[in-house]
Specification:
This is YgjP-like metallopeptidase domain-containing protein. Pfam families: YgjP-like (PF01863). With about 240 residues, the chain is of the alpha/beta class. The chain folds into 2 domains: about 5-70, no CATH class; about 85-235, Zincin-like (2-Layer Sandwich), CATH 3.30.2010. It has helices at about 45-55, 60-70, 120-150, 190-205, 215-220, 225-235; strands at about 5-10, 15-20, 30, 35-40, 85-90, 90-100, 105-110, 110-115, 160-165, 175, 180-185. The strands form 3 sheets. A 4-stranded mixed β-sheet has the order 1-2-4-3, covered by helices on one side. A hairpin with a 5-residue loop joins strand 3 and strand 4. Helix 3 crosses helix 4 (about 190-205) and helix 4 (about 190-205) packs across helix 6. The longest helix is centred in the middle third of the chain and has 28 residues, at about 120-150.
Amino acid sequence: MSAEVLEARFGSETIRFSVVRRVRKTLSISVLPDQQVEVVAPEDASSERIVEKVRKRAPWICKQLRYYDQFQPKTPERRYIGGETHLYLGRQYKLKVIPGIQNSVKMQRGQLMVWSTKPDRAAHTRELVRDWMLQRAQIKFAERLDICRGRFPDPEKVIPNSIIIRELKSRWGSMTGRKNLVINRVLISASTEAIDYVITHELCHVGHPHHGPAFFDLLGRVMPDWEKRKLKLERQMA
């Protein structure tokens, strides 16, 4: 469903937020890494009720916005030219583009090596690197899912129906109502520690859809250092 945009005043601050209405009974508020505030509300919730809820949660919202502000500005967009660096599993690798009779990408001697039939075309190099990263993500995320499930008292209860790797604008991952685990494809750039945090976080949503006390109690039990991992993720991917 399309989102509407509302505002709530809190002292001298104006909190601008988007509202997504869904078939549900409760209202939830999220502050996303790109400093967007998102409210998921019941379909029949009035705008006045939503604004009042945001106003009550304003101290927490402002605290989260200040937290994410430390990671601005974001790393400049990659140009996919030889010599620049690219993150893979938390480490920087220098990109090297080599003319070739066929297209190929490999990690070799600490470099991201790209053999390309069109070495002078950055757009072509971009597609080769992105395709390779996606292939690695499909393998690595499945591996880490099995490991993360082992953290839970009953791993069989947190098996998602599928893993969906997708380009997400402002989230690292999500667990859909149909128990599909959605992971941001760019997470392959993060360290294994950070990837495990995102997957474990989303697995906790299988039994606890919202970020309530029960959710954080479970997350704290299965991953006691989750806050440290979360901070590492935000710093790596800034």
